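User: Here's a structure from my thesis project, written as structure tokens. My advisor, Dr. K., wants to see whether a designed sequence matches the one we expressed. Can you design one independently, without my sequence as a hint?
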């Protein structure tokens, strides 16, 4: 039975010939089968007469899932192997997505993929239906959106740029309301005494720091970053005094003083964003941690154009250059707020710099890789990012100096 799909829902359909899959399986060495099917898929298919038909239906399901995300499939970001089919206790098929596939699903606002599989003696077919993520902005987010629309034009413009192809205008508005609700929560959380914090991946950060080259922490305005960082790292006394934040002054000034005071009270250092290269290199040489908030617009002088969420954005060149010259590991860190109010601070696996014979291209490719790590974090909880920031300002080419014409004598 084919799952019912509401109007506008993405749907992928694929059919394969069973003899083709049988030939493919015979030509594939057993040790390479995991490139086609997961261990669970091979186990679920069994070893009986229906094995080939079962695997053929699963292969069709993988292809059907790829058709749900044509852009990512065409660019090579995902492929059939990024989707595997498992059966539940009642034999119903379900999709398990790889991290790359989950990024594609998050970008398309897909929460889950429903499947219907069938096969005959000669062919197998699959239908994949994408379930859209539901929006439920809080009442105070709706209130601020309508009555106190701080930079609402910028927020909506940014959201349309990123999600305009997958969301309708009412959904864009709901996402904006969710963002304003998050913004209100961030302001109130600064003054709460009791906050629940969960740390994930601290062993990853510790392993990177153990290399002895210091550590560059790559992050952005995710969740309530200041609260999660200050309260979270405080749980690990062995890291006290090791964190140093490269940051611009916040506005208004009283808020900047308050945030700086909280950082210093927690044992964190702060570094001005300009003229601090020597200080950063010295800290890394001492095996300490330098934190870069990397999701803001860089000026023409400080930045390099790099893709961010599908559009070019001027991105700071300083972090790639420092990473390339020092060899310090670059560890992404993100935070978000769970529905129950718990803040999560997660450290991800390090991102490698990209080598290229041209230094400027290496900087651009590395900046793009860093942006990609931030994208993956942002897309998990898109309402908890700073959409009122003008991340995609126009990138103007450097002005050429006009040559003065030589004076001619009369």
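Assistant: Designed independently from the structure alone:
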């Amino acid at each position: 039975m084919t799952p019912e799909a509401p109007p506008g829902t993405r749907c992928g359909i694929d059919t394969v010939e069973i003899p083709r899959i049988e030939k493919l399986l015979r030509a594939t060495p057993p040790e390479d089968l995991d490139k086609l099917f997961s261990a669970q898929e091979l186990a679920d298919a069994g070893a009986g007469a229906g094995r080939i038909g079962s695997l053929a239906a699963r292969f069709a399901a993988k292809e059907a899932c790829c058709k749900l995300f044509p852009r990512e499939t065409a660019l090579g970001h995902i492929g059939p192997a990024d989707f595997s089919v498992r059966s539940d206790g009642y034999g119903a098929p379900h999709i398990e997505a790889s991290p790359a596939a989950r990024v594609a699903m998050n970008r398309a606002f897909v929460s889950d993929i429903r499947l219907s599989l069938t096969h005959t003696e000669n062919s197998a077919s699959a239908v994949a239906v994408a379930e859209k993520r539901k929006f439920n902005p809080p009442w105070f987010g709706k209130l601020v959106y309508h009555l106190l629309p701080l930079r609402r034009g910028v927020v909506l413009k940014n959201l349309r740029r990123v999600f305009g192809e997958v969301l309708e205008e009412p959904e864009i508005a709901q996402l904006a309301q969710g963002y304003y609700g998050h913004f209100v929560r961030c302001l109130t959380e600064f003054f709460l005494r009791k906050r629940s914090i969960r740390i994930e991946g601290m062993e990853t950060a510790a392993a990177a720091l153990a290399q002895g080259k210091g550590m560059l922490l790559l992050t952005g305005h995710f969740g309530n970053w200041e609260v999660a960082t200050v309260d979270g790292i405080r749980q690990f006394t062995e890291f006290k005094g090791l964190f140093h934040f490269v940051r611009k002054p916040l506005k208004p000034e009283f808020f900047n003083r308050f945030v700086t005071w909280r950082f210093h009270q927690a044992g964190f250092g702060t570094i001005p964003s300009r003229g601090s290269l020597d200080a950063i290199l010295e800290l890394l040489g001492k095996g300490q941690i330098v934190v870069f908030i990397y999701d803001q617009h860089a000026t023409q002088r400080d930045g390099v154009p790099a893709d961010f969420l599908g559009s070019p954005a001027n991105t700071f060149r300083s972090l790639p250059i420092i990473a390339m010259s020092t060899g310090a590991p670059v560890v992404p860190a993100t935070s978000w707020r769970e529905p129950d109010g718990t803040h999560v601070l997660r450290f991800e696996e390090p991102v490698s710099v990209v080598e290229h014979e041209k230094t400027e291209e290496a900087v651009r490719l590395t900046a793009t890789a860093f942006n990609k790590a931030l994208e993956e974090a942002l897309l998990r909880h898109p309402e908890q990012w700073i959409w009122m920031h003008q991340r995609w300002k126009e990138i103007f080419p450097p002005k050429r100096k006009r040559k003065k014409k030589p004076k001619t004598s009369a």
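When you compare it with your expressed construct, this may help: Residues 197-384 form one domain.
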